[in-house]
Amino acid sequence: MEHIVKTENLVFEYRVAIEGDESAIETKAALNGVDITVSKGEFVAVLGHNGSGKSTLAKHINCLLSPTSGGMWVKGISVTDDEQLWDIRSSVGMVFQNPDNQIIATIVEEDVAFGPENLGVMPAEIRQRVDDALLSVGMEKYAENPPHHLSGGQKQRVAIAGILAMRPDIIVLDEPTAMLDPIGRREVMRVVKKLNSEGITIIFITHYMDEAAQADRIIVMEEGKVVMEGTPAMVFEQIEPLKAIGLDVPQVAEIADGLRRAGVALPQGILSVEHLVEEICRLK
Amino acid sequence: MLKVTIGQYYHADSFIHKLDARMKLLCTIIFITVLFFVGNFLGYALAALYLAIVIKISKVPPRFLFRGLRAIFFIIIFTTFLNIFFTQVGNVVLEIGFIRITDVGLVNAARMGTRLVMLIIGSSILTLTTTPIQLTDAIEFGLKPFKKIGVPAHEIAMMMTIALRFIPTLVEEMDKIMKAQMARGADFDTGGIIKKARSLVPLLVPLFISSFRRADDLALAMEARCYRGDIGRTRMKQMKLKTRDFQALGFLALFIAFVVALEYLANIWGIW
Amino acid sequence: MSIKIENLTHIYSKGSPFEKKALDNVNITIEKGEFIGLIGHTGSGKSTLIQHLNVLLRPETGSIIIDGENIGADKSRLKAIRSKVGLVFQYPEHQLFEMTIFKDVAFGPSNMGISAEETKKRVEDALEIVGISPDIYEKSPFELSGGQKRRVAIAGVLAMKPEVLVLDEPTAGLDPRGRDEILGRIKDMHEKLNLTVILVSHSMEDIARLVDRIFVINHGKIALSGKPAEIFAQIEALEEIGLASTQTAYVAKSLQEAGFMLPDGIYTPEHIVEEILKEVNKC
Q1: Shortest Cα–Cα distance, A107 to chain C (Å)
Q2: Looking at residue B215, what is its pLDDT?
Q3: Which CATH class is domain C3-228?
Q4: Does B9 touch chain A (CB under 8 A)?
Q5: Looking at the complex, does the CB of residue C103 fall below 8 Å from at least one CB of chain B?
Q6: pLDDT tens digit string along B47-83?
Q7: Span A58-83, mean pLDDT?
Q8: Both B49 and B84 in a single domain?
Q9: Which member of C145, C176, C269 has the closest CB to residue A254?
């Protein structure tokens, strides 16, 4: 499979003032040697608690930050190549956590048009892209509404439409559901999965294990490093290591694990309610 | 809750809404200028009629327009009184101590008050029927000729857009912070000026901090969406003047013609 | 310290075209020392309801009786009631404003006119229970991590020594570690300070771990109420409202349908493992 994002020993350091000593400066590594590859069309979830480096990684993909050392390539282009910066940005869309702070315009469709306008797309083409994008996220009815009357989930869908109108190959979502209620979370998840099925590569940062469980692959980060990587079934089997770094596991995985510990013979990789029930029924 | 009409678009499907924002802006500026040349009350009546027709066509409920008036009510009252008390020419109508009110003063005050009210209503129609972003585009267009002398037309327009976008968000946020501080026993209503000013600290500090945070987030989001000023930027909505824009201009021209004619007649007949 | 809400109705923008009935004849009784979960999604009316509890909104129709006192009836009692019912808003860290952590937490008590000495004690107690150590009292609250800021903000309400603590989505936006920390502290407060706690959340997992009783609010009405076991068993009713039960409850239901003899009202992983083992070992 073709790699669309690739990092090699990616390091990002930043400086912080040491408390009590105005002149001393300490260097901290937000990313400390990250090696990942993401294939074209993949849906990758990134887990890890705050400060684990996952947002920093996300920002590198869009060239919002540039590596201190190591390398990173998006669609084969090195992110350190300044001349190609806009090429990368136009093929990588980013959705952020706070739905309020990423909508620029006062009317939904004008906001969706913002990206393609920046790219210098011809007006008629922008119109087409805006309509397509809004339709794709199911917000076409709200095209002429002001964004502040929308729910959180709707605002995030508008933000996604704004990215879609730029026709990106990759969408990076940095905790897009953290501030939403269950209905909003489901709306966003549905849209993300739909876009992935249409061929867009998704990199999805989240704290919610049920969302991560829907990805093709999970990357777990801790202290600037990748500590676990694999299919959801593989990752969520590691209940102890996950809990040790302060992450959750889906309840189904926890139940399966509890039963296994008590000596019940259950196969590995149980992640859905149906699967678990089926396996338990087999025991009887 | 704060209610500010300016910058509050009222969504409706009307002739006025469909007009090109640049034309609306131009017409509003002309209308306001004309207001200050009109000297007689028949002219004002005509202007009021003109406004009434425009409001009717715009489908904006009149109460939205009056809401805008409420906000500047004190300015109107203040100007009116200023005119009453400081115009000393003409026949004295009333004299108490050093206060002397003259007929010319009263007429001037009435004139000024009427002008202000119509000015606000006129510009409110513009802001109510034009999305802030269209308005911003119109202003950007209007400022373009000044770009050569260093006026950052695009940047000004972008700043206005963002400000307008965030007004409702910040109003909401202020309401939230205020309630939260009230829940901690903060009191915003009682006490003298100093106490009141100090009681605003728990409100303003969080509001500023949150604005900075939002600005930070927004800058990042804009950069991620390839924003780099107006370099190589296109617009989805192309502003194109249509027949209706010239109809509107024609209607305004007709109004001006009437006003000028009236003014002329008023001079001949010697009315105010 | 019981709370009795009777026939409470609240309409926003009454008489205008934007009129919205946020609360529709709500009746709730909460006993002293209870740990209550209030569930409902955005716009369900839960925010309106909790704002009534400390008179940020005054009851228009219906009444709220706390400890036998009809709140909202007497404006001069406002401060007293607000200190009795502590309200922690969503993202409470957004209200921090003072130069130091200590001063920020002291804001509430000093507004109530409490002596400096007593305030100091209250601030220290409040910060201790939220797990902020004394050596950072003089630090700026803005230098803290997200989870710490939130705990400081909660301490700011606790320092008013409320008897009822209402928390609106206290875990929103936190990572699992931060969430567990906050929930643990809230549990402590409930147990050690003998507080009546009302926890507003849309996380079923959070609620399931802590509360004695649940109210589900939808379209301004109390749609469901009861013990967690009763609520989580009502999978269809919850789904209809746009909420979901815990994953465990779904497993339990499917197993029951498949002929397993499981008791009703299982909603935690530990509990279901135990019950399944009983069943499996029988064979």
Answers
A1: 20
A2: 94
A3: alpha beta
A4: yes
A5: no
A6: 999 999 999 999 998 888 877 787 778 888 888 888 8
A7: 91
A8: yes
A9: C269
Both B19 and B123 in one domain: the answer is yes
CB-CB under 8 Å, B181 with C79: no
Given a cut of 80, whether residue A160 has pLDDT beyond it is yes
Same domain, B176 and B152: yes
pLDDT tens, position by position, C223-279: 999 999 999 999 999 999 888 888 999 999 999 998 888 998 899 999 999 999 988
C94 contacts on A by Cβ (under 8 Å): none
Q: Determine, for residues B185 and C156 on separate chains, whether the beta-carbon distance falls below 8 Å.
A: no
Using the Cβ of C263 and the Cβ atoms of chain A, whether some distance falls under 8 Å is answered with: no
**Domain assignments of chain C as residue spans, ordered by start:** 3-228
Total number of residues shown for chain C:
283
Specify the long-range contacts of residues C236-244, CB closer than 8 Å, at least 24 apart.
C241/C40, C241/C41, C241/C216, C242/A182, C242/A183, C242/C41, C243/A182, C243/C39, C243/C40, C243/C41, C243/C202, C243/C204, C243/C216, C244/A182, C244/C204
Measured distance CA(A49)–CA(A248) in Å, rounded = 10
Q: What is the mean pLDDT of residues A163-186?
A: 94
Q: Is B219 helix (H, G, I), strand (E, B) or coil?
A: helix
Asked if B247 and B117 sit in the same domain, the reply is yes
- Indicate whether B29 and B92 sit together in one domain: yes
Please state the domain count of chain B.
Answer: 2
CB contact under 8 A, C246 and A251: yes
B236/A115 CB distance under 8 A: no
A143 three-class SS: coil
The verdict on residue B104 lying in a domain is yes
Residue B5, pLDDT score:
41
Touching check for A273 and chain C: CB below 8 Å?
A: yes
pTM of this structure: 0.85
B4 domain residue, yes or no: no
Q: Any idea how long chain B is?
A: 272
Contacts B210 to C, Cβ<8 Å = 94
Mutation pick from A55, A89, A98, A104 vs chain B, by most beta carbons of B within 10 Å, is: A104
> Can you tell me the mean pLDDT for B192-210?
88
Q: What is the mean pLDDT of chain B?
A: 85
> Does B259 have pLDDT greater than 90?
no
Domain that holds residue B37: 15-130+241-269
Please give the Cα distance from A239 to A225 (Å, whole number): 19
Q: What is the fold of A40-68+79-232?
A: Rossmann fold (3.40.50)
Same structural domain for residues B61 and B168? no
For residue B231, is it within any domain?
no
Q: Does residue B137 lie in a domain region?
A: no
Return the residue of C nearest to B176 by Cα: C89
Beta bridge partners of A283: none
Backbone angles phi, psi at C243, to 5 degrees: -110, 175
